[in-house]
Amino acid sequence: MTIQFNDETFRDDYSFHNSDWAIKRFPFPFHEDSYMYAVNMEQHRGGPEGSVYEKRFDVDEHYVAEMRDRAMVLADDPLRCQSLPHMTLAGWDLLELIMVSKSEDYPDLFELHHDADQWRWVNKPLGIDDTFTFLDETTLPYGPMEYITRQTQGDFCVLDQREENLWMDAGMVTTQADWSLDFDLGMNFFEWHAPVPLAHEMGIFKRALKFLLNIQQGAPARRMNWTMTVNPLLDTSPENYHKWGIQKTTLTPENIGSKQHLRVELQTFFRLPRSNALVFPIRCYLCSFQDLMTMPKWGRRLHRVVRDLPVELATYKGFIDNRPMMLDYLSQFDDGLPTSPGVFPEPETEPPLNKAG
Amino acid sequence: MSAAPQKAKAGAEQINVKVSAVVPLNDLVTRFEFQRTDGQRLPTFSGGAHTVVTMNDDGRTRLNPYSLMSDPTDTSTYAISVRRDDQGRGGSLFMHTRVKVGDEMQITYPVNLFSLDLRAKKHVFFAGGIGITPFMSMIAQLERSNGNWELHYAVRTEALGTYVDELRYKFPNKVHVYYDDQSQSIPLEELLDGQPLGTNAYVCGPKGMIDWIHATAAAAGWPDAQVHSEEFTAPQPGKPFEVRLCKSDKTIQVGESESLLEALEREGVEAPFLCRGGACGQCETDVVSYDGEFIHRDHWLEPEQQAGQKIMPCVSRFVGASLEIDR
Amino acid sequence: MSKFQFPESIKSRPVYGTLEPRVGKFHLMIADAEGAEAILELAAQDSALMAKSHIIFIPNGTDYGDQLKALNPAQYYEGPSYAASVQRIRHVLANAHQGLQVYLTGTEGLMGQAQNEAMQAGIPHTFIQTEHRGSVARRMQCVHCKGITEDVMTDPFVCSHCGLNLFVRDHYSRRLAAYQGVCIDAEDPGNVPEPVELYK
């Protein structure tokens, strides 16, 4: 099936919307009725057909609109895409990884043709047909990392591996959960995670780093993270927080179902061959509370997770002030019935909501 | 989350290859070249990476790591060079005496535990004997990006100077060779003096050479983070010992010429690994109880961990009354 | 006493030590104001050190200059400001060789900026010694307009470039040599708490 791309915005009038298909395949992040940090890594080797885990780089109905939004962010603030000089080789590695993966996984949308070092890249959804020389920066309109990540959904952190640590030495970051690439560029794994509460004390980052350092070629991995966003705003950057922060105060009991979004990050990790760097794509998926509530299992579970989340985490994720209103809304969709294990919605087998709305 | 949970495998991904060339280079060293059996391209890699070769030695599985020494951008063929060790446990002898062109073998995807620091203003390589191999691929990588490098290579005799002629021919101004039997030695203090700020040094060779270079560089005020070394410790034979595996609820014997990791694998107990040389940390195992002495040979554990907390089964052994580990 | 024990904080916040003489080919010492005391203490530990040392000192109104000069370093320079000294620092680093030891002492702003120069010249940041002395003022970057405000003493403070009210985070960037300042009243415009002196 070829994808119908939405004409939609992630700013101003917020015309972003999920089709029934997109709701059903939304990567709901909670596999049980509670949440605490965990390293929760698994291999990234496909997943159920049609799920966001199936392909190496998932392309969905938001692709064209997300790329348009990225171009606007970069025009306003070019510092959202930076690469320290020693990371150019890793940029080429990433370009190759994405071009090969997308042309193999979506042959109807993307084509890659090689003739020795001469490469031709065809991106049909974005109307691109470029020929360039591999490893020759002068033949591309941008650096290799910027070129390919202007055409790929999700943020990208390209991490150099040295001294038993990972270093945030390059990235394309325009759909972030409130962190600044420009500020964090050059930091090591513990430093850029420094503001995260609780997890350092729990040893989460030490274990996660050990795992990541040992990710090898041919064996990519993935994990999930999540937060909350008012309005389907992709660019929740610290740079623009003084502009978007106020939107958090616009929630009302009447609009919360459509305005409040669960924001999920599908994080994947690939070893890059020539540079021995690690690329860490962070793909953001948004879904409004009211769309999530169409799946009874997710309605029950989201209420329980938000209700029981430690205060530190609700504060760090930026929704402590709105939590009471969220719970008032979500409790309507929790009838106390048990939920089946796992993240998938299972609308065929999960009992319908047994509660007078 | 668990969308499609899969169990992590022990070791890196495997590639099926056939031996495409066996090239004796001198009395001790032979080069082996591999191509994929399915005719596909091999993955490209970064200079300094190694692969683990699986050898089927009459039913006994041997897994030995070797540096990839071909040009990393050549995806048709991988090459390793193996030095015959007549006193070793038999892996290199197997390669030298049993492996023929056309044989099918398994190797792992490339793993790099000795990579270039691409920020370096200059790379100075120090090789001892067969320690030349990782530098062959590093040099090929740097040559493609106009990297600033030089090589100082100590060998025993002219006859045992593996790749000396090739390197000297291609890079006459960058390659410096020192022959032990002519009483030549690397003028290390002189070489370390005057290097531009941001120079990185890399050493691969015998342990004594590695220690010498680290110590001399430190005494000259070099940051240790800019002195990189790779020493694969081949597992040394030792007295047989018995180990209790508490998770598997088994008691196993470790033979004289096998490692604890190999004994675990023989018994079907899975343990993760990458380098099998005490460097990567993957097979780190908790010690539950012990009465005796450890023979630690890894470069991974901290001294306090070696004092009865942990063991690296790929290279380390035990002598004493009893040992119980968390496997 | 010019030493201040910073409270324990998050992992991106720099931790300063105490300067000690190290073996090296040459020694570059950069200090401002009370940082001079740390250099004097360092010199007292190793009488041979000064013959191979270059001291760059920014007095900022203090009068340690004569004492430093009396140490007889191989080279001594006194600059009116860090900005005036930075070309000299870059030149020294560009011409230095492996084996150079760098010692930084004084305010966080001075140490951070000089550390950044040394890192760019190729010295690993973990190899550069630092010792805090004197003012606890911070060098802050406004995450919104990217402007740097020097010598911030209160939380919150006003960005000297864009005028937003910013709160002071402990999140620190070595590359920018600055802490992060973030708008404090984004979700409640105009509700800005009274500024409080740092560490009070």
Care to describe what's here?
The complex is a heterotrimer of chains A (357), B (327) and C (200). Chain A has a 7-stranded antiparallel β-sheet. Chain A has 13 helices and 10 strands. Chain A is of the alpha+beta class and 357 residues long. The longest helix of chain A is centred in the N-terminal third of the chain and has 18 residues, at 88-105. Chain A has one domain (20-85, 148-331). In chain A, a hairpin with a 2-residue loop joins β3 and β4. With 327 residues, chain B is an alpha/beta fold. Chain B folds into 3 domains: 14-108, Translation factors (Elongation Factor Tu (Ef-tu), domain 3), CATH 2.40.30; 122-230, Nucleotide-binding domain of ferredoxin-NADP reductase (FNR) module (Rossmann fold, 3-Layer(aba) Sandwich), CATH 3.40.50.80; 241-325, Beta-grasp domain (Ubiquitin-like (UB roll), Roll). Helix content of chain B is 17%, strand content 33%. Chain B is built from 7 helices and 16 strands. In chain B, the strands form 3 sheets. Chain B has a 6-stranded antiparallel β-sheet, covered by helices on one side. A 5-stranded parallel β-sheet of chain B has the order 9-8-7-10-11, with helices on both faces. In chain B, strands 13-12-16-14-15 form a 5-stranded mixed β-sheet, with helices on one face. The longest helix of chain B has 13 residues, at 207-219. Chain B is globular, with a radius of gyration of 21 Å. The model of chain B is unreliable at 1-8 (pLDDT under 50). With 200 residues, chain C is an alpha/beta fold. Chain C folds into 2 domains: 26-132, Nucleotide-binding domain of ferredoxin-NADP reductase (FNR) module (Rossmann fold), CATH 3.40.50.80; 138-197, no CATH class. In chain C, α1 links the parallel β1 (26-32) and β2. Chain C is elongated, with a radius of gyration of 18 Å. Chain C starts with 25 loop residues before the first strand and ends with a strand. Chain C has a 5-stranded parallel β-sheet, with helices on both faces. Chain C has a 5-stranded mixed β-sheet with strand order 7-6-11-10-9. In chain C, α3 packs parallel to α4 (108-120). Chain C has helices at 35-45, 65-69, 82-94, 108-120; strands spanning 26-32, 53-58, 75-78, 100-106, 129-132, 138-142, 148-152, 154-155, 157-158, 165-173, 178-183, 196-197. The chains are: A alpha+beta (357), B alpha/beta (327), C alpha/beta (200). Chain A binds chain B through residues 27, 29, 31, 40, 42-43, 45-48, 51, 53, 84-87, 89, 135, 160-163, 210, 214, 216-219, 223-224, 273-276, 342-344, and chain B through 1-6, 8-9, 12-13, 43-46, 48-49, 72-73, 109-112, 115, 117-119, 141, 144-145, 225, 274, 280-282.
